[in-house]
Amino acid sequence: MHLSYVMTQERGATDKLLTALAERLQADGLRLAGIVQTNTECYDNALCDMDVRVLPAGETIRISQSLGPEARGCRLNPDALERAVGQVTAALGQDPAPQVLLVNKFGKHEADGRGMRPVIGEALARGAVVVSGVNRMNVEAFQSFSDGLAQEAEPDLDALVNWVHSAVAEAAKEG
Fold it and tell me: Mean pLDDT, 10 residues at a time, over the chain (175 residues)?
């Protein structure tokens, strides 16, 4: 199993790192699936709009929803996330299969067993290399999900690229 997770300190830094990783891996010729996130600051709100791009070159889907200025709950639009999940799941079945799955974040939805969680399991079962962003609030849930087998990656683009290439090479020998 080739599963790694990355955490950063700065807000939005994991999203930027995984987007850069996707660009580098695609430029290197690896077959990707998954989602990467971009955040757009809103001028009338302290929060941002959250969009995910389905890899390798799929649709961009807004996964946040406006709940009003007084709302304090999660702004994730579960229907939009599930639409992205469906597209990524379909991509896993393509021939040739993706070598790498990138997941923008193992968040509360995944910690609760939904969202990209089943996709991660499916990708691993198919022998793909998986890299996921994780935030501090959900790292314990992620470690429990991975049964302690996931490796924490250094939040450095070159280190991540090297780890993925090494893991893809190992997976090819195993499979």
Answer: 94 93 97 88 60 90 72 69 93 94 94 94 96 94 94 96 97 87
Backbone angles phi, psi at 134, to 5 degrees: -140, 140
Tokens of 71: 């709302």
Sign of CA dihedral 72, 51, 109, 156: negative
The residues that bridge with 134 in the sheet, in sequence order, are: 106
Reading the block at residue 58, the tokens are: 């799929």
Residue 30 is classified by DSSP as: -
Q: How far is CA 162 from the centre of its chain?
A: 18
| pLDDT tens-digit series, residues 44-91 | 555 567 889 999 988 899 888 766 556 555 566 888 889 999 999 999
CB-based contact 4:151 (threshold 8 Å)? yes
- The DSSP secondary structure of 68-117, one letter per residue, reads -TT--S--B-HHHHHHHHHHHHHHHTSSSPPSEEEEEEE-HHHHTT-TTH
